[in-house]
Amino acid sequence: MAQMVAPLEEQERQTEKTALITGSEAIAVACKLADVDVITAYPIRPYDTVMQYVCKLVSNGEMDCEYIVAEGEHSQFEIVKHASACGARVFCGSSGVGWMYAMEALTVTPALRIPMVVMVGNRALDDPGAFGVEHNDALAVRDLGWQLVWVDSAQEALDTALIAYRVAEDRRIFLPCAISCDGAFLTHSQALVKIPEQSKVDAFLPRYNRGDLLLHPDNPITVAPQGNEDWVMEIRRQNYAAMERATDVLKEAYADFERIFGRSYGNPFFEEYQTEDADIVLMGMGTLSTPVKVAIREMRKAGKKVGFVRMRWFRPFAAEELAKSLSRFKAVGVIDRDYSFGSPYMSGVLANEVRSALYAAPGKKPPVLGFISGLGGREVTLPDVQRVTECVYRAAEGKSELLTRWIGLRE
Amino acid sequence: MGRLFAIEIIYRGIYQKTLAGRISRAIVLAAHQEGKPGISFGRYGDSPERNGIPAKNFAIVGTDQETLEQGMAKYEPKEVDITIAVDDTLCKGVESWAWYGLQPVNRLLKPGGTLIVTSRETPEAIIAMAHRKEVPYQLSIVKGTPSFSGLWVYKDDHTDVRILGTIARLLPDLFSLKSVQKVIKEEWKDDLKATSAAKAFDRASSITVNPNQGNPETPYKFDLPKWHEMGEGIAIPSIAHGITMADPLTQQSGGFQPKRNPTFKKFTTRTMRPVVNFDTCIKCTLCWLQCPDSCFDVTPEGLYDANMEACCGCGVCEAVCPVKECVTMVNEAEFSDNSSQWESWRKDKAGYQTWLLDKIKDKSERSHGFRYKGQYEEQVPEMLEIAREG
């Protein structure tokens, strides 16, 4: 294929090592750097931005991979599942109800130990048909053996995609990984991203080796047979062990990432912001980190010692480390960009995970308030964050507070 | 704590599914006539049933609700008062989808419990088929041809009520003849069936089988691996390709014997087996090609030997063989082992012909379901005649 010249405007906005790209484009660049073999696509907003960028890279001759547009999300995920079983490094993705349409394929992927890496452009589930971000789509697979990570910048999206391949394809793990990027805030906004050198990526990321599980005529195996109750528990226990190992393998990968690329993410599992002297902390996942951090800076000017803990890895969930960290604070306010109707205290998913992590942990257990906000892509405003903070302070002072509150709702 | 009764019905999957369900339902209903609560269920692990594969139904009855719950707290009974085998070839052993290895037909029987078998064989023949048991048990034969029909067609040949009448006689504490007759009339609205139950009640008898009687073989077992001993990713290595066969006389090797699944042999599915006349075989390959279970071993001289560790007895080989009586399906009860027919033919061709003619001379009709239109109309009166006359 003839090398096509990139359009002028793109040349202009690209410097040697830094590019002005969206979170989706950053993921596409990571696919190119990781030399992914098979990519399947089916359009749904906001994930489709990744597929457009990958498509462009392939047609420009910058990337060499099988690029297959499936007839729906179920096939889209099945195709890469099979390709991965045959030894191909794969990439895929979807959003909202598209991700749900693939659900059968999503459930079998971790069970078959397929190290698929995908991008979920987080989108509210229908109905109503809405494009904006909610985290319920990716969270739907939280119990099935998927590694789940939320990123909050295009740079982190690119870096995390490389880390995701490294961990997912580690023989000790062989579990799929979904990288969640908030629709619009991350998928559709361009930011300056440092593009790592190929040689460094090659040093960081070994080739995918399917080993004894390779589906190939030279290695005749049967994959996914029927099994009765004599087998199912043992198979689930193996996945439990793999997820248990993922914590350490992730730590190794982040340490190597820092060594090779010179960029550190600190604690791989959650980011702490201004927590050293904090009385209370707020928590959340994804891009709501920006309004929360800005609000914290303003509140600190007014003397309120507020910190922020952004959960990066939701699966595996670093419960012990998180509980240890949270025990330092007088109260915790978790802002969920999701819902879990009928759950304990009707809180969001993250709030209940945090409570669960604290319950069994030794040490002090601060009260945890749940806040549901920013649904369907609604802005989480600075006054919203201040309201949340006021509630958490009241809980810190021992006052009775609602365990779940909706913030930013017209009422 | 009251008394707990457990009864298992071992049957041929699909062909006898309705029959087994009717028997276990009626047991519970009859006991309920006398105020005893009970449950009736098919073992979930046997499903999806395949043609002829051994499967089980259970009826559990307690003298009171708490006792019944004691029995229900187990996935299935670990010991039973009565085992019913509605096909006599099941007495050779039971390998189902629900577990691994071969289970003797009498395995779950309590000491002194009763094995009820539908059969036209003698007690000696049945005892020889069943594996030895450490404790004595009773054997009762309900005379009759095994009742095979299917899921959609039920062969109302009174096998169900004759077994129920036999139970009333052998385990009167569970239910009386009067109770079961009442249920039969209510459920099936057929006085003739109630009469058949009474006749079976009158004729029922049992003999004691002692620990030194029966098949001395140890049934094959398979140990399930621990979770960390298993391969990951729900991937299982394929079965090895196969080996050549050795001629028992010349030791020359040739041909091809495929390797087979070591953990699921499935030959207890068989109710009849092919007997092959190697002298008339024209080596057309059709039996080998068409066998759904790849059970034919290819001998060094290019003949086809149905391997009895793999044959499910479907009869496709007989149907496709173009040579008259080259492949003949014969009642499984006529055989006492799984040895190679080809090897015995190689060792003594004249002796083999005598054996073969003896096996195929009385070719009793034995098939799953119905092979031709009108078979139901022929068979049911014949079996009802047995029910009437004994």
Structure description:
The complex is a heterodimer of chains A (411) and B (390). Chain A has 411 residues and is of the alpha/beta class. Chain A folds into two domains: 12-261, Rossmann fold, CATH 3.40.50.970; 270-407, Rossmann fold. Chain A contains 14 helices and 16 strands. Chain A has a seven-stranded mixed beta sheet, with helices on both faces. In chain A, helix 11 (289-301) links the parallel strand 11 and strand 12 (306-311). In chain A, helix 4 (73-85) runs parallel beside helix 6. Chain A is globular and about 65 Å long. With 390 residues, chain B is α/β, with parallel strands linked by helices. In chain B, strands 2-3-1-4-5-6-7 form a seven-stranded mixed beta sheet, with helices on both faces. In chain B, strand 9 (242-246) and strand 10 form a beta hairpin. The radius of gyration of chain B is 22 Å and the shape is globular.
Helices, strands, pairings?
The complex is a heterodimer of chains A (411) and B (390).
Chain A lengths: L7 H5 L5 E5 H11 L4 E4 L6 H12 L6 E4 L3 H13 L4 E5 L1 H6 L1 H9 L5 E6 L13 H4 L7 E4 L3 H15 L8 E6 L7 E5 L3 H7 L16 E3 L8 H30 L8 E4 L6 E5 L4 H13 L4 E6 L1 E3 L3 H8 L4 E6 L12 H11 L8 E6 L8 H15 L7 E4 L4
Parallel strand pairs in A: 2-3, 2-4, 4-5, 5-7, 6-7, 11-12, 11-14, 14-15, 15-16
Antiparallel strand pairs in A: 1-8, 6-13, 10-12
Helix pairs in contact in A: 2-3, 2-8, 4-6, 9-10, 11-14, 12-13
Chain B lengths: L3 E9 L4 H17 L4 E5 L11 E9 L2 H8 L7 E6 L23 E11 L3 H7 L7 E7 L15 H12 L6 H12 L2 H13 L3 E3 L25 E3 L4 E5 L6 E6 L13 E5 L9 H5 L5 E3 L5 E3 L9 H5 L6 E5 L9 H7 L1 H13 L13 H15 L1
Parallel strand pairs in B: 1-4, 4-5, 5-6
Antiparallel strand pairs in B: 1-3, 2-3, 6-7, 9-10, 11-14, 12-13
Summarize the structure.
Chain A has about 400 residues and is an alpha/beta fold.
Number of beta strands of chain A = 16
CATH class identity of the largest domain in chain A: Alpha Beta
Specify which chain pair forms the largest interface.
A-B, 26 and 19 residues
CATH superfamily of the largest domain in chain B: Pyruvate-ferredoxin oxidoreductase, PFOR, domain III
Number of strands of chain B: 14
- CATH topology descriptor of the largest domain in chain B: Pyruvate-ferredoxin Oxidoreductase, domain 3
Overall pLDDT score of chain A? 95
What do we call the CATH homologous superfamily of the largest domain in chain A? Thiamin diphosphate (ThDP)-binding fold, Pyr/PP domains
* Lateral arrangement of strands in the main beta sheet of chain B: 2-3-1-4-5-6-7
Give the biggest beta sheet of chain B. 7 strands, mixed
| Major sheet attributes of chain A | 7 strands, mixed
Structural class of the helices, strands and pairings of chain B? alpha/beta
Give the class of chain A from helix and strand content and strand pairing: alpha/beta
The fold-level CATH name of the largest domain in chain A is: Rossmann fold
